[in-house]
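#structure-requests
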Amino acid sequence: MKTQTKAIQDSQSPSGILEMLKDGNKRFLANNKSPRDLNNQVSETAAGQFPHAVVLSCIDSRVPVELVFDQGIGDIFSARVAGNIINEDILGSIEYGCKVAGSKLVIVMGHTKCGAVTAACKRVELGNITPLLSKILPAVDEVIGANGEVTDSNIEKVSVVNINNAISRMRSESAILNEMEKEGSIQIVGAVYEVASGKVNFL
């Protein structure tokens, strides 16, 4: 596979990049990854980077973004935080990836069996984890409420609502990303990674 260059980045469309990543996940599922010379990609990207996408995902060790989309060095900006939540630093990072570095697709990717979402559903309070989980609580309140039952099914529903809430916050709290999406220069989508199968389901 070719290393991502400015010329390649300029020629790509948001929808085309999305299809490319979907195809990459299909290759991952089939254990048929594209041949890459990673050492050569290190050299070729040393002078600059032109990733085609920004992926906001959880820190979960079972969700290695580049691997599950069959991508190489220099292909993806990977922003990772427990519960794939939105805050000022994450927004600034995504704005940099799109507005400054030219990425055309933003994916907010949660996953099944998410520990952060589970903890939020159980209203865990512990150190700096507490304010982090507070950003997931709106999704918990929407799905479960104050006295609802915390079931495996409800936890997965919260994960999906949390992804959609993150996208909504991205649009409302980042004038840069909102404008870029409206003019069609970027696309923002949600996805859920299945930890049991390796499949990415787009919302």
